[in-house]
Design brief:
It comes from Ancylobacter defluvii. Keywords: DNA recombination. This is Tyr recombinase domain-containing protein. GO terms for molecular function: DNA binding. With 210 residues, this protein is mainly α. It has a single domain, classed as Orthogonal Bundle (hpI Integrase, Chain A), CATH 1.10.443. The protein is built from nine helices and three strands; from the N terminus they run H-H-H-E-E-E-H-H-H-H-H-H. The chain has a three-stranded antiparallel β-sheet with strand order 1-2-3. A hairpin with a 2-residue loop joins strand 1 and strand 2.
Length: 210
């Protein structure tokens, strides 16, 4: 049977106003009685998603050893060693200079070894704690953007592609950063280098929030 087409009421990425509202909420978020890692996740994960196009779960399972300085670039490594990666392939993403200025590398440097935002269970399970954090991050985003027609977590991934195309970044480079499969056999030839990715990330406009 032919499936009915899903009704689409809006684009799947955050608008400029929505993105800035979530990032401002993250910047101003106060810990209260939250666990330190949950607080840190609400503070940093939205900003990291905004500037990397990574899935929320990929960022939420970052470990201290997955953040390093490579020459002039700060780089995060998204790897199946840390937890679920949809493509089951490692990829590296240079950090936007704004994240460096805001102090993300300093936050990492001051963190204990291991996971930055989750605490594995006693048996070493990561999936449960990761899903719990993803739910809390979705609730946090939904408290700012109430429109049910946009995902408070996945909208960052769509927005990154939109902003990148507006900035003139090539689709091949955007796909490499986001971990999307090339659309043609020809696009699998050659390597999108760290320098190419860094140039693309630097081309992304800064999020200016109050």
């Amino acid at each position: 049977m032919k499936r009915a087409k899903v009704v689409k009421l809006r684009e799947r990425d955050f608008t400029d106003a929505e993105a800035k509202a979530v990032l401002e909420a993250a910047l101003r978020h106060e810990q209260g009685r939250e666990r330190p890692k949950t607080f840190a996740a609400k503070r940093w994960v939205p900003w990291l998603c905004a500037y990397t196009g990574a899935r929320v779960g990929e960022i939420a399972q970052l470990r201290k050893q997955d953040v390093r300085q490579e020459g002039e670039h700060w780089v995060i490594t998204l790897t199946p060693e840390a937890g679920p990666i949809k493509t089951k392939e490692v990829r590296e993403i240079p950090l936007h200079p704004h994240l460096v200025e805001m102090g993300f590398p300093a936050f990492v440097g001051g963190s204990q070894a291991g996971y930055l935002f989750i605490t594995p269970s006693r048996d070493g399970d990561v999936i449960g704690p990761l899903q719990g954090l993803k739910n809390r991050l979705a609730e946090f985003g939904r408290s700012v953007v109430s429109d049910p027609n946009v995902s408070p977590n996945h909208a960052w991934r769509h927005r990154f592609k939109t902003v990148g195309m507006d900035a003139g970044v090539s689709e091949r480079v955007l796909d490499a950063i986001c971990g999307h499969a090339p659309r043609t056999v020809g696009a699998t030839y050659g390597t999108v280098t760290l320098n190419a990715k860094a140039a693309a990330v630097r081309a992304m406009p800064r999020y200016e929030v109050r």
